[in-house]
Amino acid sequence: MVFNVPWIFSPVRSVLTVFHQLIKCEIPELNKASVCVRDKGRVETIINNMRRAGPNALQVISDFDMTLTRFAHNGTRCPTTHNILHSSALISDDCKAKMTDLLAHYYPIEIDNSMSVEEKVPHMVEWWTQAHDLLVQQRIRKDQLAQAVRDSGSMLREGYKSFFDVLQQNSVPLLIFSAGIGDILEEVIREHGVFHPNVRIFSNYMDYDQHGVACAFKGELIHTFNKREGALQNTHQFVHDRTNVLLLGDSLGDLNMADGVKDLHDILRIGYLNDKVEERREAYVSSYDIVLEKDETLDVPNAILNYITAGK
Predict the structure, then answer these.
(1) Who's near 299: CB < 8 A, 6+ residues apart?
(2) What confidence tier does 227 reach under pLDDT thresholds 50, 70, 90?
(3) What's the topology of domain 10-18+27-67+155-310?
(4) Are 300 and 248 in contact (CB under 8 A)?
(5) Among 178, 181, 254, which residue's Cα sits nearest to residue 218?
(6) Cβ 205 vs Cβ 219: under 8 Å
(7) Is 10-18+27-67+155-310's fold the same as 80-151's?
(8) What's the pLDDT at 237?
(9) Residues with catalytic roles
(10) Long-range contacts of 101-106, Cβ-Cβ distance < 8 Å, separation of 24 or more
(11) Phi-psi category of 219—alpha, beta or left, where left has phi over 0 and alpha has psi -120 to 50?
């Protein structure tokens, strides 16, 4: 674990030591080798504030691909929502080759630590627009999507059922902001049997003609760095008075997904560092409150949720 808490003033140390002992007993998952924490005292304070406020004050905002879904399994990369279509028989080999070329060109830009978000955004718009145009040309039928998901090997992270069920049982809204394909995302959750009424999804959805064939993508384009824009304006009633946020993401672009939350009180940001760990660790640890390195489970979010909801 990476703890950078300066023990300077004894009164502060005394308070944080109490938190440390409480969290150590109640949330031992925070001591896993995969967990990195920039400011342990701050994390413990936020978690305890959330427990005191209870589940009625909580909402969860999460990315989907490589956050709620696994990054890899047995050494093999798991598919994202775009990859599910890419690996299916629903699109041509020519389309697959072109989408692979787009990935090779734009993904290094997405994760380039030397570029600002503002510099990356035009490239992301180009990438997503071109990818969506290619998919629309394939004339994909809506009734084919469920089978494509079943054939894909897509996997939610270990512990997903507890995660979704605890949120449902405590009526905690789960807002999923995804730059992927919403139609596929819904099928993945439905396939795993956890598409509960408390789940709301904001993603790129395909539009279909009268024959059920995809003919366009609906609404504003959602890419890695603009997930929050407009989405929270449509969820105020759903998350009314929920001023505490547990945020889950896997990219630096996910950090701002809660920027539009009204009267935000406490927020805990948990980031999955799935790839290029040594190269990206410093940026993640300096940005997220908790970083989970090559951790294919929801153990830490589940433990925190169980701790918060147990205090109601």
Answers:
(1) 29, 32, 158, 159
(2) confident
(3) Rossmann fold (3.40.50)
(4) no
(5) 181
(6) yes
(7) no
(8) 55
(9) 63, 65
(10) 102/127, 102/130, 102/131
(11) left
